[in-house]
Write a structure and sequence with these properties.
The chain is of the alpha+beta class and 94 residues long. It is built from four helices and four strands.
């Protein structure tokens, strides 16, 4: 399945939620997996984004649905990017 990078920034409401219930992050990851994607890795960040999540999803439509669902809650702003392994990129460039 294709790989996607989801970079997320918490809203004020999202920060309040995470402060009170940090385990909510894992709950959201389970929700994402129930929508058909697999969370391969996730990191908390310092800087412009609060989290980066590496996902395996069936296609662009699936990841778009996940991004819209997560963003519609008002607790996070999301930028999602498709990613390609470097080996695959090199192969396609040859």
């Amino acid at each position: 399945m294709p790989i996607y990078i989801m970079m997320s920034t918490l809203t004020d409401e999202g920060r309040k939620t995470i402060k009170k219930h940090p385990e909510r992050i894992e709950e959201v990851n389970r929700e994402i997996e129930n929508m058909g994607a697999k969370v391969l890795a996730q990191y908390a960040l310092l800087g412009q984004y609060d989290f980066i999540t590496i996902l395996d999803a069936p296609n662009n439509e699936s990841i778009a649905r996940i991004s819209i669902e997560m963003g519609s809650r008002g607790t996070v702003q999301i930028m999602t990017l498709p990613a390609m392994p470097v080996e695959e990129f090199i192969e396609k460039m040859s």
